[in-house]
Design brief:
The complex is a heterodimer of chains A (343) and B (494). With 343 residues, chain A is α/β, with parallel strands linked by helices. Chain A has helices at 18-30, 45-51, 65-71, 94-113, 148-166, 186-196, 215-227, 246-259, 273-288, 294-301, 311-317, 325-338; strands spanning 9-13, 35-39, 56-59, 79-83, 118-122, 171-175, 178-180, 202-203, 209-210, 212-214, 235-237, 244-245, 270-271. Chain A is built from 12 helices and 13 strands. A 7-stranded parallel beta sheet of chain A has the order 3-2-1-4-5-6-11, sandwiched between helices. In chain A, β5, α5 and β6 (171-175) form a beta-alpha-beta unit. In chain B, a hairpin with a 5-residue loop joins β3 (75-77) and β4. Chain B is globular, with a radius of gyration of 22 Å. Chain B has 494 residues and is α+β, with helices and mostly antiparallel strands. In chain B, strands 1, 2, 9, 10, 11, 12 and 21 form a 7-stranded mixed beta sheet that branches. In chain B, strands 3, 4, 13, 15, 16, 19 and 20 form a 7-stranded mixed beta sheet that branches. In chain B, strands 5-7-8 form a 3-stranded antiparallel beta sheet. Classes of the chains: A alpha/beta (343), B alpha+beta (494). The A-B interface holds A 129, 131-133, 135-136, 139-146, 155, 159, 312 and B 161-163, 294-295, 298, 365, 368-369, 371-373, 375-376, 378-379, 402-403, 405-406, 408-410.
């Protein structure tokens, strides 16, 4: 696959997030100069500088144009923009639109003003809903069927990308499903803890399938999307080689924990399928009132199949996921331990 | 095939006895009758519908529905939602009126049936060899020259999405060279029924078999009502029931055979949309030969009959929004998304009624699959250049962009859609002794009644995910040869 040279300037939004941190760690090593990073809070600054010491860190909010302006001021030469900023578990449903949709429109407009070489927008599986059958797999091109508030906001963001491409910007979309790996947030710690204690709620048969992506595989995919020249407006699923059955996920994480020296209890927490259905209805009802409950949302989604086909990323970008579930989960567990996080 | 004109034998000439009575003359009954007659047996085929030769009616027309469909095409499986289905009721059965699209059952399907339904004798290689014969007998071939515009839409849309699509061969001959719209369907009245009569079989039409008469657990004839309401009894040594997946189980039930009969109806539910294009493209008297198979066997997309009456019917679910567009019917064609469902239905004969009660239940997953299927089909249409798409469900809006497709998915509910089905099957399924749904033995013989066999779509163990006619014919030929080789029909006490 023909790949362009790295640009003079790489702008990364959401640089202190899960993907953003993994990306800054890679870029800090590969192209230490010319990194410009947007973080949401002053308290995030040191964490980003620890990964990429020569980066220029800007504190601001993508939904606020003045913050974006500071990010894009004084840039010279080729500029690429990697837009990872977003909110997935907000306090209020309205934040979805403000951050994910309006924020993306702001970043695209600023990128167009500075004549960016390429913008990589990080989207999600959520604009496409869930698969109608455990054997169904989302193809590269699928009809939108957004999953509640988050899905709608990410769909609207993809719409802003399409509009920007229409106006002449070279922007592309990367769509990762559920990710795992180092730099994980606290909610993922709970996931490990539940599995270690044998208390992860497997809804129904456990045969539902999930595509997942190891965060470093995702960084590979994002950088290929940035550097491999393609038609503007393309979108690719970036995930591990194949979807995993939920049972396999729970078993593999249990094995990884055990092999890292943890005492793991067998997971016997089976929940009837109706619980997932009720949780989904509750999630919808809560979101209609403008509020958001992470636990209910995740439980409602847990009985669904969300499986994607990465073949267009393989053929168009040369993307080959290097890490699969067991190895990736062990790395993730070790990272938690190194950070002093108790599982 | 012979060019002798064959029709049915009128009743006065029909004897009142036969060695073998074949009930029904469709894709199961016709090859069964031909093989039995060619083996020297005295065969009487009893067909409820009329004999209508190919070319006598316009294909896919209302006239055809009146003459060759059961209840003029209005038959319904009750449930939430109720599902409309159609059946042929004429000499040749469904083969006279279906799309004529030939699908060879995949080897994986046959080996799955063998394993899941304890059918150790179901040999995929043997079935493959029979299919080779069928392809010659029915002149299965691709359309010569260019496909029609509605067919090209499916090819173009799928190609733009990178989705797998195929041109499906048909049992058609093309006497006018490469004119795709002048095909002559190689249905049963053109192929196996003439073969049967040439070998001495008698075919009577306009006669309905009410019940198989039994004596000491043994069939000894059939009671028949003719179109003029006359009742007759035909004595026979064997009965082969080939009345289709609805009427075969109903006839068995009326005859006192009920074990695993009618309880496992399988269908291919479909939902529809109409797409409008910038240019004139409607072909009123034929269906597209391209299908989108990217998601097969879960989902398949194809084209439906689209004469103006059927276009109007397809717009009728949201007529308040779509009705005004009917003036553009020449720029429109109707398309379907079919699913392989999890649900099963039931056929129950009701005392005093000619037609059985048919019920069918779609599962939640089936309903979700119909919705996703219709959305993916809308995408095919937009990519093929449709300027407007009209999904067939109550409350639907006009779709002209990808964000409209998202709205379509949000609005869709299977209970508000017009769900239809062809490809009814699996109501008296083949099964080994360890198969829980076993309606017949591995060769179609009804357990405990040695001289009654079933030989039609009722035998398929489950919905094959493709047009089942070739599969039905292949199994019918396989079973008949087995019965001849084992002298089942030679023994009067079988």
């Amino acid at each position: 696959m023909i790949s362009r040279a790295a640009p003079d300037v790489t702008v990364v939004t959401g640089a202190a997030g899960w993907l953003g941190s993994a990306l800054m760690a890679r870029l800090g090593a590969q192209r230490p100069d010319g990194l410009v990073a947007l973080v949401h809070d002053e308290t995030d600054r040191d964490a980003v500088l620890a990964l990429a010491p020569r980066a220029r860190v800007v504190v601001g909010d993508v939904s606020d144009r003045s913050g974006i302006d500071a990010l894009f001021t004084g840039l010279t030469g080729d500029v690429d923009v990697i837009h990872t900023a977003g909110v997935i578990h907000p306090r209020r449903v309205a934040d979805f639109e403000t951050v994910n949709s309006i924020g993306t429109a702001n970043v695209l407009a600023a990128a167009a003003r500075v004549g960016a070489r390429r913008v990589v927008h990080v989207s999600s599986n959520s604009p496409f809903g869930t698969n109608p059958d455990v054997t169904d797999v989302f193809r590269g091109d699928e009809p939108y069927d957004p999953y509640y508030g988050y899905g709608r906001s990410k769909m609207h963001a993809e719409g802003h990308v399409a509009d920007a491409v229409e106006r002449g910007l070279d922007a592309v979309i990367v769509r990762p499903p559920w990710f795992y790996g180092p730099h994980q947030p606290a909610r993922q710690t709970a996931f490990f803890t539940m599995i270690r204690k044998g208390r992860f709620p497997v809804i129904g048969s456990g045969r539902q399938r999930r595509s997942m992506v190891y965060v470093d595989n995702l960084v590979d995919g994002v950088l290929l999307a940035e550097l491999v020249p393609t038609a503007p407006g393309r979108a690719w699923w970036i995930a591990d080689e194949r979807p995993y059955e939920l049972n396999e996920i729970v078993d593999t994480v249990g094995r990884a924990l055990r092999d890292e020296g943890f005492d793991v209890r067998p997971n016997r927490t089976r929940v009837p399928a109706i619980v997932g259905r009720v949780a989904e209805l509750a999630d919808a009802a809560i979101q209609r009132t403008g509020r958001y409950q992470q636990a209910v949302h995740v439980l409602g989604e847990m009985d669904k199949t969300i499986a994607v086909d990465i073949s267009s990323a393989t053929t168009e970008l040369g993307y080959r996921p290097a890490v699969a579930l067991y190895v990736g989960m062990r790395a993730s567990i070790r990272w938690c331990r190194d950070q002093g996080i108790l599982l | 095939m012979s060019d002798v004109t064959h029709t049915a034998t009128p009743w006065p000439a029909a004897n009142s006895s036969a060695e073998v009575v074949v009930v029904g003359s469709g894709a199961g009954g016709a090859p069964t009758a031909a093989l039995l007659a060619e083996a020297g047996l005295d065969v009487l085929v009893i067909e409820e519908g009329p004999w209508v030769a190919q070319g006598e009616v316009v294909p896919f027309s209302l006239d055809q529905m009146h003459r060759q469909y059961r209840s003029r095409g209005v038959t319904v499986a009750l449930g939430k939602p109720s599902i409309a289905y159609t059946e042929g009721r004429c000499a040749g059965g469904g083969s006279e009126i279906n799309s004529g699209l030939y699908w060879r059952p995949p080897a994986s399907l046959l080996s799955r049936w063998r394993d899941e339904y304890d059918l150790a004798t179901l040999d995929p290689d043997e079935v493959e060899r029979i299919l080779d014969e069928i392809e010659v007998a029915l002149s299965v071939q691709l359309v010569p020259g260019a496909p029609t515009a509605p067919s090209e839409v499916l090819r173009r849309g799928a190609a733009a999405l990178g989705w797998r699509h195929d041109e499906v061969p048909r049992w058609m001959t093309y006497p006018d060279g490469d004119d795709a719209s002048r095909g002559r369907r190689q249905s049963m009245t053109e192929t196996y029924l003439p073969r049967a009569t040439q070998a001495g079989a008698r075919i009577v039409t306009g006669a309905r078999v009410d019940r198989i008469t039994m004596r000491a657990g043994h069939a000894n004839g059939v009671d028949v009502t003719t179109d003029d309401d006359a009742r007759r009894h035909i004595a026979c040594r064997h009965v082969v029931v080939c009345a289709g997946a609805i009427h075969t189980p109903a006839l068995l039930q009326r005859s006192g055979i009920r074990r695993n009969v009618g309880a496992s109806l399988a269908i291919h539910p479909t939902v529809k949309l109409t797409a409008r294009f910038p240019e004139t493209m409607n072909v009123p008297d034929d269906v597209p030969v391209h299908q989108v198979k990217e998601f097969a066997p879960l989902l398949s997309f194809g084209g439906s009959a689209s004469h103006p009456g059927l276009v109007a019917l397809s717009l009728a679910d949201a007529w308040d929004r779509f009705g005004s567009r009917i003036v553009d019917w020449e720029r429109m064609s109707v398309y379907y998304a079919a699913i392989t469902p999890q649900g099963r239905g039931r056929v129950r004969a009701l005392p005093g009624f000619a037609d059985p009660l048919v019920t069918y239940r779609l599962t939640r997953r089936d309903q979700a699959l119909l919705g996703r299927g219709l959305a993916r089909l809308s995408l095919v249409m937009l990519e093929a250049g449709a300027d407007e798409v009209y999904p067939s469900f109550r409350g639907a809006s006009v779709v002209s962009s990808r964000s409209d497709v998202a709205e379509q998915q949000r609005q869709f509910s299977a209970t508000r859609a017009t769900v239809m089905s062809v490809h009814l099957c699996s109501t008296v399924p083949l099964g080994g002794t360890r198969s829980a749904q076993r309606g017949t033995d591995e060769w179609g013989a009804v357990p405990g009644v040695g001289n009654v066999t079933v030989n039609d779509a009722s035998l398929l163990p489950d919905a094959p995910g493709v047009n089942p006619q070739a599969t039905v014919m292949a199994l019918a030929i396989r079973n008949t040869r087995h019965h001849l080789a084992t002298d089942r029909f030679a023994r009067s006490d079988a």
